[in-house]
């Protein structure tokens, strides 16, 4: 099982304590009513799905309960780093 | 190709079977083809075969990064069924089931399609209502599916525990008798052999490294590890790697790739006569002709290309199996493995044209692509030959993520799909 470092608890905990939250840094629409169908498609459905470095959200569901971001390699599943929500993309 | 027949078999018996030729020759790529398929899994090889057989395009190459049938075609649990809720899905998957019937004769290759039945167990009132709704919807679409009482479930599949004292009592089941299993490797090999005999070149160990587009944006061919190969028609059938191939053509796709695991037990004598699925407990199982119990596990929660999965997923699956089939609690598991499945937002495939002229796609089958192998191959071939989708795969276009006409089997099929 993968160990994930929670940047709030400052502790590496087993994966089962966490919930995956999908690709990170996808900005919510500021003014949704002005969004075109293409923009909605991009926001809701299009994903980067890279082979290699992936920015993603996790939530420490069975711990502090807070969302944070992580960079993980999708080939080796090794976490490069985790950082608090709101911090700049790493 | 030397045909398999009783006559040839007896003839070869007198020659110590030295006269059988190779199933398909290993070809070097030509400079150009009328059509190129990227990905030599069951779907891609099927598309090449039907292009040559039904649609008259025989100058075809199938390009594969690894070895033939080494991706999800060789990693699935070989289950075949078509008991899907929505009309579009029922038509799509039943098209495949109709082709499975008679495929061995068509390919002159025994793919071991066994109509042993797929039984989906209901454990609560919601399951009962949902499965009965599926049964009625299936019947309206001409797909066989019937309701069994717990006693009938037990009679059909004796290892099931139907005692009312279990944690998840069996309240009944939906049985599709035409469902069953096939031998996955034979499907890939049979299609490869038959396609090769019709003139299709199968090029293995040759990764696609780029897709070349002309000034008008149309497809001109593919860059590979063994040089540029020209073609005006390219069909991509690359499962978990589809996002990567599409990026080469400048397209972003609504796909995410997840590891999906399966495992087999040590081989035992025949004990398990059909396929049993339980969505609520999340377990499904069948027994292969070798005697191994073949068990499907779930996907990991995170995207990955690692072709393995987390250990706790296996643990969870086996806990569910032991719950429904206490008889197997002392079985030992022999092997586990993972494949990378490409999942769409609505859990239905994308099969048709792309915004790039001459580029076609067959992807997004997620956790349930094997059952569709002949149908997906045929429909991709049809779409490439006519430059427009067949009416069966027309709803499975890319535009649905823009116009909102989703085929939301994610909601309809619950866990197992």
From TrEMBL, chain A:
InterPro entries associated with the record: SoxD, SoxD_sf
GO biological process, one term: tetrahydrofolate metabolic process
Domain of life: Bacteria
GO MF entries: sarcosine oxidase activity
Protein name (database record): Sarcosine oxidase subunit delta
Organism per entry: Novosphingobium sediminis
Gene name of this polypeptide: soxD_2
TrEMBL record, chain B:
Cofactor field: FAD; FMN
GO biological process: tetrahydrofolate metabolic process
Compartments (UniProt record): Cytoplasm
Matching Pfam families: DAO
Keyword field contains Cell inner membrane: no
Record key words, sorted: Cytoplasm, FAD, Flavoprotein, FMN, Nucleotide-binding, Oxidoreductase
Catalytic reactions on record: sarcosine + (6S)-5,6,7,8-tetrahydrofolate + O2 = (6R)-5,10-methylene-5,6,7,8-tetrahydrofolate + glycine + H2O2; sarcosine + O2 + H2O = formaldehyde + glycine + H2O2
UniProt-listed Enzyme Commission number(s): 1.5.3.24
Family under the similarity heading: Belongs to the SoxB family.
Name of this protein: Sarcosine oxidase subunit beta
Encoding gene, per UniProt annotation: soxB
């Amino acid at each position: 099982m993968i160990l994930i470092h929670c940047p709030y608890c400052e502790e590496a905990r087993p994966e089962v304590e966490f919930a995956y939250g999908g690709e990170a840094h996808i900005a919510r629409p500021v003014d949704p009513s002005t969004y075109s169908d293409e923009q909605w498609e991009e926001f809701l459905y299009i994903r980067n799905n890279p082979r290699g470095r992936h920015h993603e959200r996790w939530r420490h569901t069975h711990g502090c309960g807070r969302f944070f971001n992580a960079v993980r390699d999708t080939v080796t599943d090794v976490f490069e780093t985790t950082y608090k929500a709101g911090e700049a993309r790493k | 190709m030397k045909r398999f027949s009783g006559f040839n078999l007896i003839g070869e018996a007198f020659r110590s079977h030295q006269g059988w030729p190779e199933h398909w020759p290993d070809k070097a790529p030509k400079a150009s083809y009328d059509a190129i398929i990227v990905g030599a899994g069951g779907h891609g090889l099927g598309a090449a075969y039907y292009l040559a057989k039904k649609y008259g395009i025989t100058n075809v190459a199938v390009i594969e990064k690894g070895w033939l049938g080494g991706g999800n075609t060789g990693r699935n649990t070989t289950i075949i069924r078509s008991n899907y809720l929505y009309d579009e899905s029922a038509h799509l998957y039943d098209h495949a089931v109709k082709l499975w019937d008679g495929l061995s004769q068509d390919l002159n290759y025994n793919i071991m399609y066994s109509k042993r039945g797929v039984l989906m167990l209901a454990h609560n009132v919601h399951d009962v209502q949902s499965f009965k709704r599926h049964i009625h919807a299936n019947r309206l679409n001409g797909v066989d599916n019937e309701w069994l009482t717990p006693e009938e479930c037990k009679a059909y599949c004796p290892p099931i525990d139907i005692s009312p004292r279990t944690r998840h009592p069996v309240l009944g089941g939906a049985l599709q008798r035409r469902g069953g299993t096939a031998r996955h490797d034979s499907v890939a090999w049979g299609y490869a052999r038959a396609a090769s005999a019709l003139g299709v070149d199968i090029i293995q160990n040759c990764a696609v490294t780029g897709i070349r587009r002309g000034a008008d944006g149309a497809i001109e061919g593919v860059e590979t590890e063994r040089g540029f190969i020209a073609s005006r028609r390219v069909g991509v059938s690359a499962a978990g790697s589809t996002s990567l191939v599409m990026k080469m053509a400048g397209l972003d796709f609504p796909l995410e790739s997840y590891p999906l695991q399966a495992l087999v037990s040590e081989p035992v004598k025949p004990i398990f006569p059909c396929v049993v699925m339980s969505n609520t407990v999340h377990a499904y199982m069948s027994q292969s002709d070798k005697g191994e119990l073949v068990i499907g596990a779930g996907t990991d929660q995170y995207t990955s290309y690692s072709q393995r999965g987390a250990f706790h997923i296996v643990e969870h699956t086996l806990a569910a199996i032991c719950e429904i089939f206490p008889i197997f609690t002392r079985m030992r598991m022999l092997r586990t493995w993972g494949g990378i499945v490409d999942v769409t937002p609505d859990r239905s495939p994308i099969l048709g044209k792309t915004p790039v002229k001459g580029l076609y796609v067959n992807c997004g089958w997620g956790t349930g692509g094997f059952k569709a192998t002949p149908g997906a191959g045929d429909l991709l071939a049809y779409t490439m030959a006519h430059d427009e989708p067949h009416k069966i795969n027309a709803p499975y276009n890319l535009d649905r993520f823009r116009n909102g006409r989703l085929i939301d089997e994610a909601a309809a099929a619950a866990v197992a799909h």
